[in-house]
Amino acid sequence: MRLERLDGLRTIAVGLVILLHHSFAPLGGVGVDLFFVLSGYLITGILRRARNKEEFWGPFYLKRATRILPPVLILIPIVFLLTHNGKLSSALEYLFFLGGADILGKNSLPILGNLWSLAVEEHFYLLWPFAVRYLPKAKLRVILVGILIAEPIFRLLVVHYIKHPGDVTYYLTPFRLDGLALGSLLAVLLEDNEWKERITRWSSTLAISAGALYSVLYLADGADFHPFSDSALWCGFSYTIISLAMVGVIAYVLLHPGAVASRVVSWRPLVWLGAISYGLYLFGGLIGTITAKALHAPFPIPVATHHKMLIFDVPLIIIVAWASFKFYEHPITLWGKRKADGNVRSETVAV
């Protein structure tokens, strides 16, 4: 069942990212971490509910493909054709969800730069279902806790051995698993009533404590505690701290439906925007580039110009994302869901 308040959280996440891309909200990158935690929670829940079904792989990947691929298959060719200077190899890297590698290399299609986070999620979709399908719940918990312990260590090793670790630890999948792991762990723990009671009691404390810790570190050392910083403190621990705050927020909204925060994110306009948030995220770079050219903005775009562009970009992004969702993405997604559910029902009848 789709929870409207989670759509509201999606809107907040994509809104933070859009503000970040327009030189507002220096903490806007938090929106990406919120997306990661949400994705981990939702996908793990889907996989856990389907784990004992004979038709496990086909329906899952069909639904994922018909949800994720349609707008990407339009966006990448459009960007490639419009930019003229992009290399075909870069387009293929984004198409096969290797965007992080392209950004760290030639980055010949910077308009598609935000697809790096989509690549992280797709790598997760490829590997995590095997663990959920074949491992018991106790081992899943161990793996997820192990990931949360290992991630800061891996990033600190990168800081020690690589010249510019900030970009590597920001873009590449092996170093951005904190949010996905925490979201997945939340889904697994909420299956147990005892854990559910604990999380209900402590979710707000976790969100506030982790958020406060992040804020203190940011205020104390803002020069080094920010995205792409090469500092050991940022690279090692920031993503874990942010993800802890985000999982606290999500758990609180999930388990306290009557709370003020839950009612706020259930506001109809936020829910509506959340339903098209994928397009809002994907098409932002393309719309921003078109607006910049229309305004004859120099490159790199000055901060003041970025601020002005927001006035034009936001309504355009919403219109394009809505049209793509209504007339293109949603019909394909519905077809995939019907096809996948039909296959499962057919198998059940046959048995």
From TrEMBL:
Domain Acyltransferase: residue ranges: 5-298
InterPro entries: Acyl_transf_3_dom (IPR002656), Acyltransferase_3 (IPR050879)
Taxonomic superkingdom: Bacteria
Gene Ontology, cellular component aspect: membrane
One record GO biological process: lipopolysaccharide biosynthetic process
Parts of the chain that traverse the membrane: 30-47, 68-88, 108-128, 140-162, 168-190, 202-219, 231-255, 267-290, 310-328
Family matches, as Pfam families: Acyl_transf_3
Keyword field: Acyltransferase, Membrane, Transferase, Transmembrane, Transmembrane helix
MF (Gene Ontology): acyltransferase activity, transferring groups other than amino-acyl groups
Listed name of the protein: Putative acyltransferase
Organism: Terriglobus roseus (strain DSM 18391 / NRRL B-41598 / KBS 63)
Organism placement in taxonomy: Bacteria, Pseudomonadati, Acidobacteriota, Terriglobia, Terriglobales
